[in-house]
Design brief:
The complex is a heterodimer of chains A (328) and B (156). Chain A has 328 residues and is an all-alpha fold. Chain A has helices spanning 2-37, 53-63, 74-92, 109-117, 119-130, 134-165, 170-176, 195-209, 221-224, 234-259, 273-291, 299-327. Chain A has one domain (67-327). Classes of the chains: A mainly alpha (328), B alpha+beta (156).
């Protein structure tokens, strides 16, 4: 009994540690990447290659005073940042990094991750609403409509994959794609010829779900000051920031598991955690790359993209796959 | 219907082109010069504040004609001189002659507009623009330059 409790504690500590470390160093990677793309060095003063920058940022954020604006709903104001970070950490529990590295394998892992992912929409809504700030309010209105619009095509795509593999267990999803790149869900098969399109849809939706540029309408600096976290300082802001990056890791992990064969090697050799990490960090690099390439979309463009393009195409893909699965 | 798919395709194509450009830039060398640690070479024609030019003996080339002082629209140059007797051999006999020697060349940089009239008007090529741009101070006295002193410091 004590051993299982110890296991749980170790798993939780590792999940939090992994999430926090990733959040801290992805900020560094983001800033360095942004710098390189804009042909400047990025943070390079603190430590070699600026590697101590996250530490300095963390100390700065933690030592600042947490100011709660007058007229704000105190309880919700305090809950919102926690709600941004907690679901991301919880989602790490069920993500299988390799055959053996998984804190708790669930047979409905996919469902659980999406259930918690939708909570991050709540954190934005609560943050914007409780801070009694018109910019925050506008941002939360936008973010909620965005989250609702983009969860639909995302889940339709997931349903397509679940239909093909017949399982919601993340480990079995990866196992179904083992053996090499030709078994990955990314590659079109006889029963679902539109899989690359589905991958693209899922990729775009995960950008939108994590509120990443070019879909970062929730914090559009040029229009809404800082959006939903306008009124947040110190670690309240820090938690939103960490939550965003933890969500990016979750998104990249999900794409890897659902489409890119999880911990499997493209050639079927040496499957292991290193392949998983390589894939998620390549995806995260592409997230950063996209952020520093494209300007922010308008709210209309954003909603039109979802309702007029992504949802019809993903629905068509679902129906096509359902039909072809019966045929073949 | 056809327009719908063309628009999607065109959009994706333009996004890919944009990504290609930033990907190329990612591997280009950084152009930032981290200023206090690195500096770029000053251009030949940079016009900083003025500076005295020395002759072969290391003394100021200036003959104290005062043209710069008169040309200066802001009146920020002030000169002082003294007469010095010196001997020179003219047609086999020694003669004593007088000449002016510069004893003070003050530039009040707080009012200088860097117009360059002083350098233009100098008939003897005795002043030039310096390339000194690291000028920052909280006291205005720091911008009253004693150019003769600067010349001495440069030579020592």
């Amino acid at each position: 009994m004590s051993l299982t409790i110890l296991n749980v504690i170790i798993a939780v500590v590792i999940a939090i540690g992994f999430a926090a470390l990733n959040a801290a160093y992805l900020v560094w990677a983001e800033r360095r990447g942004a710098g390189r793309i804009q042909r400047r060095p990025g943070p390079n003063v603190n430590g070699p290659l600026g590697l101590l920058q996250p530490l300095a940022d963390g100390i700065k954020l933690m030592t600042k005073q947490l100011v709660i604006p007058g007229g704000a709903d105190k309880a919700l104001f305090m809950v919102a940042p926690v709600l941004a970070m907690a679901p991301a950490i919880i989602s790490f529990v069920t993500i299988p990094f390799s055959e053996s590295i998984v804190a708790h394998s669930m047979n409905i892992g996919v469902l659980m991750i999406f259930a918690f992912a939708s909570l991050s929409g709540f954190s934005i809504l609560l943050a914007g609403w409780s801070s009694r700030n018109k910019y925050g309010m506008m941002a939360s209105v936008r973010a909620v409509s965005q989250n609702i619009s983009y969860e639909v095509p995302m889940l339709i795509t997931v349903i397509t994959i679940v239909m093909m593999t017949g399982t919601m267990d993340l480990k079995e999803l990866v196992a179904a794609q083992s053996g090499g790149i030709w078994n990955w869900n990314l590659i079109p098969s006889l029963s679902s010829p539109l899989m690359p399109v589905a991958f693209l849809i899922f990729f775009i939706c995960s950008l939108a779900e994590t509120n990443r540029a070019p879909f970062d309408l929730g914090e559009a600096e040029s229009e809404l000051v800082a959006g939903f976290h306008t009124e947040y300082g110190s670690m309240g802001f820090g938690l939103f920031f960490m939550g965003e990056y933890a969500n990016i890791v979750i998104g990249a992990s999900l794409i890897t598991i659902l489409f890119l064969g999880g911990w499997g090697c493209p050639l079927g050799l040496f499957p292991g955690v290193w392949w998983f990490l390589l894939k998620i960090y390549m995806l995260i690099f592409s997230f950063i790359w996209i952020r520093w390439t494209f300007p922010r979309t308008t709210i209309y463009g954003l909603l039109n993209l979802s309702w007029k393009i992504l949802i019809p195409i993903s629905l068509f893909n679902l129906l096509l796959t359902a039909g072809l699965l019966k045929v073949f | 219907m056809g327009a719908y798919f063309t628009e999607i395709f065109r959009g994706l194509q333009s996004l890919a082109i944009g990504l290609g450009i930033t990907f190329k830039e990612f591997f280009q060398p950084v152009v930032t010069v981290s200023y206090p640690y690195e500096t770029i070479k000053m251009s030949e024609r940079y016009r900083g504040h003025i500076e005295l030019i020395e002759d072969e003996e290391g003394k100021a080339k200036c003959v104290v004609c005062g043209m710069c002082e008169r040309a200066c629209p802001s009146g920020c140059i002030s000169l002082a001189s003294e007469s010095v007797e010196y001997e020179v051999e003219v047609k086999g006999e020694m003669k004593t002659k007088k000449k002016k020697v510069l004893t003070k060349y003050d530039l009040n940089f707080t009012t200088c507009s860097l117009c360059g009239q002083c350098v233009e008007n100098c008939n003897f090529g005795a002043i030039t623009f310096s390339k000194d741009y690291n000028l920052a101070s909280s006291r205005k006295e720091d911008f009253h330059f004693d150019l003769l002193n600067r010349l001495k410091e440069r030579n020592s």
